[in-house]
Design goal:
This protein is mainly alpha-helical. 83% of the residues lie in helices and 0% in strands. Helix 1 packs antiparallel against helix 3 and helix 4 crosses helix 5. The chain is flat, with a radius of gyration of 19 Å.
Length: 138
């Protein structure tokens, strides 16, 4: 039985291909750079290409928020997204100050999106756990 609403189904139909494209493009470009060792414009294009599916994923998430009619679901997603942004900004800000003052290794900024995704998921888990605990206390 499919319990997803139309906005959620459209989200999945858009999200899965975008994430598959990200994985495929990332590995293909990394392989091409390593094997062919391009220079100039080709190198820049191959290096930047994996970011395009990430931009698509962000657009898919934005479309889902715009299309979701259930205000409760939308509010939970926005809360989790904001929590993920806060965690990501905290990590990258602290790391940036450590780079400046303590000479730690440079933070690979391409990790910002995966960190945000992980933090977004953790916030969703924390919200669900909070809701379950509040429900069991009755």
């Amino acid at each position: 039985m499919n319990t997803k609403n139309p906005a959620q189904r459209r989200y999945i139909v858009r999200f899965v291909p975008a994430m598959l494209a990200y994985v495929i493009v990332l590995f293909a470009c990394s392989w091409a750079i390593r094997v062919y060792q391009p220079e100039g414009a080709a190198l820049y294009a191959l290096a930047a290409l994996p970011s395009l599916p990430i931009l698509a994923v962000l657009a898919v998430m934005g479309l889902y928020l715009a299309e979701e009619r259930d205000e409760f679901i939308r509010n939970r997603l926005v809360t989790a997204m904001m929590g993920g942004i806060g965690i990501t900004l905290a990590i990258t800000s602290v790391w940036g100050f450590l780079e400046e003052g303590a000479d730690v290794t440079h933070f690979p900024t391409f990790l910002a999106f995966p960190i945000w995704c992980g933090a977004f998921g953790l916030v969703q888990c924390a919200m669900s756990l909070r809701d379950r605990m509040a429900g069991s206390g009755q």
